Structure formats: C-alpha cells, structure tokens
Amino acid sequence: MLRTVTIGSCVSIQGIFVKALENGFIRIKVDGNIYEGRPVTPRMN
Q: Between 16 and 45, where is the model more confident?
C-alpha cells in the first residue's frame, strides 16, 4: 500500500507502508531506504 509522509515542514515522500509507530508516525520504504514521518491524510471534497 502506498503512503505519503511529511518530513520536516516541506518534504513529502511517498513509498510502501512498513509500520505504524506508537507516536503517530509511520515508516515507509523507498528503493531499500526506510523513512519515518508524519502521515499525510487524504483530502475529501
């Protein structure tokens, strides 16, 4: 499942979901690298 995370105030990364963390952050995997950040919630119109 693809997920998007925000790292810092302006960097967003999209990758394969790995794990949800207790602090509300999630981990995603992109080309063998693991990134951790705040999940982006989808906008519903």
A: 16
